[in-house]
Amino acid sequence: MKEDLLHFIWKYKKLQLDDLLGTRNEPIGIFDTGTHNHLAGPDFFNARVHIDGQLWAGNVEIHLKSSDWYAHHHEKDTNYNNVILHVVWEDDASVFRSDNSEIPTLELKNYIPQGVLDAYQKLFDKNGVQFINCEKNIGDVDTFLFENWLERLYFERLERKSKWVFTLLESSKNDWEQVLFAMLLKNFGLKINGASFLSLAQALDFSTVRKLQSSTLALESVFYGMSHLLDSKEILDDYYIRLKEEYFHLKNKFGLEQRSVQKPEFFKLRPPNFPTIRLSQLANLYTKRQNLFSRVIHASQLVELYEIFEVSASGYWNEHFTFGKTSKKSSKRLTKSFIDLLIINTLLPLKFCYARHQGKDANEDILQIISQIQKEENSIITNFKHQGLSIANAKESQAILQLYNEYCTQNKCLQCAVGNSLLRANG
């Protein structure tokens, strides 16, 4: 037995409602179960319950055992003084408010239909389950309900990402350009070099980037130099030497410090994702797109964002992936799939947070953009598709990742619209 099942049973009145008796044999009638509270404080607010012939309005607290009231120290918390009913699976102790008045208790174990318990057990039955608890039934969930749940999950994911954005904003003293710069660097580094590139953003004040935006060579030299990519004394390539000379000059001019910057990796990366290529692409983005933050924020169409990020690495990299070693000629342009990742993981979270910071709502623009981007392809998305689900775009694939990571893997089925629907239908 888990407490979230008791929440579900109370919320949806999945119990025998006739002839309910409290533990002191007082008749109890449930008029309104109240509003489910997922934050601190009692579990349900503003419930209305008949207790021993009198209508009470107040809060309801739910526990597995009555004694949990004391285990959680509710008797010392004034937020629980308005609890009118204690709902428990098992009553093992009398419970009192801080003024020593006893709280009526409803013990549920004798009032729950067996069908509800069987449906709950079925939902969490691991026999034959290879992926998620509801894999045998998720395809039966109402399409309208599931689509609405996915939209909620997508914004939940944005909310989660927004915590980091606002942390960056605070550390940058409300410099949104610096925030964008840090987010772009982290995501240009992808999984392997994300932390390394972020350490560069944290060591390099964006005011310096602003001053160097007229010269791609200057920006590249700073990015490479601070990232320890110009430390070799054996490379005699002309471009490499020019970058070293430029960095030496700018390092002294701006007092640049590279000790806190983590050197990026090349190992296990496809050549187009080498840090040499990605840092050059970013330098070109900033020299070719002045006022980048403003451009991103005011872009309301997907095509506008694609146009902003239509940049390539410098010409030297057309025949190189690393310094001093030539390769087959190819333009190192940002691909559409890479720009999609930037939009999903950087630009839309930024737009979401900036709108909130301004007291505005950008949800419709965000939904319009994310719904036009192709879905991501990974093992989680593939497994959900094997359950018979159709995943149409990036909004839905992002929502599916949120569903899997925050609900499925943590067995939060009764906080999920899918599990909730299945249990209500079968219980």
Describe, in plain words, how this protein is organized in 3D:
With 427 residues, this protein is of the alpha+beta class. The protein folds into two domains: 110 residues, no CATH class; 199 residues, no CATH class. Helix content is 48%, strand content 11%. The protein has 17 helices and nine strands. Strands 1, 2, 3, 4, 5, 6 and 7 form a seven-stranded mixed β-sheet that branches. α3 runs antiparallel to α17, α8 crosses α9 and α13 packs antiparallel against α14. It is elongated. The model has no long low-confidence stretch (mean pLDDT 95).
Concise structural overview:
Helices cover 48% and strands 11% of the residues. It is of the alpha+beta class and 427 residues long.
Q: Which descriptors apply to this entry?
A:
alpha+beta; 2 domains; seven-stranded mixed beta sheet; 17 helices; 11% strand; elongated; DUF2851; DUF2851 domain-containing protein
